[in-house]
Amino acid sequence: MKMKLCAVILSALLCCALRAGATVLPDACGDDSVKFDVSTQKQGTELAAPETGMAQIVFVETIDRRGEMGGTTTRFGMDGKWVGANQGNSYFGLAVAPGEHHLCANWQATGRKKNVGMATFTAEAGKVYFYEAKIVMKYQRVAYGSGIGGGLREESFDLAQLSNDEGKYRVKLSALSTWKPNK
User: Is the torsion defined by CA of 21, 136, 33, 167 positive or negative?
Assistant: First the structure.
């Protein structure tokens, strides 16, 4: 009888733990099940002017890795839908209608869902807006006992608007992202 009671209690605790670990994203993001396949290519040209009657938003991903290698895919959402993704130091742009928009940036990788950035901006026709998802990863080897063991990892994630000058400069330093949803 005690074994059955223990099994029931353990099952209840596991259900609560799974529910607590579920990803809850802000309304500005999109459906968490949407993933992107991203490829990048060096871009050698200037950004095109916004379409007539529209604004343009450019999403830039900047990664500062210290002691760690690897790619990171960041999804970008606007007004409740994912609009694209970047991988590594890259960017993409899209036309947006004038008016208020709610932005979201989120790491696509499992286990890093807590890294979410949000912003709100009001687009004006003919203007270009740059937003950077800046990721800083620090990794240090830690000595345990007589040998070198695992690592200590610090991560920070932020979504912030850039000035036009800073945005144009980041685009020059970055590759152009192309992506497709992979559900």
Answer: positive
**For the chain, what percent of residues have pLDDT higher than 70?**
69
The region of weakest confidence among 39-48, 80-89, 94-103 is 39-48
pLDDT of residue 107: 85
Q: Which residue has the tokens 């890294």?
A: 115
Q: Model-level pTM?
A: 0.77
Q: Which residues contact 90 (CB under 8 A, 6 or more apart)?
A: 38, 40, 60, 61, 174, 175, 176, 177
DSSP 3-state assignment of 85?
strand
DSSP letters, 14-53, are HHHHHHHHS----TTS--TT--EEEEEEE--SPPPPPPTT
* Rounded Cα–Cα distance for residues 33 and 53 (Å): 33
Q: What is the dihedral of CA 51, 131, 84, 86, to 10 degrees?
A: 130
Q: Does 3 score more than 60 pLDDT?
A: no
Rg of the chain on CA atoms, in Å:
20
- Give the separation between CA 73 and CA 181, rounded to whole angstroms: 12
Tell me the β-bridge partners of 117.
Answer: 105
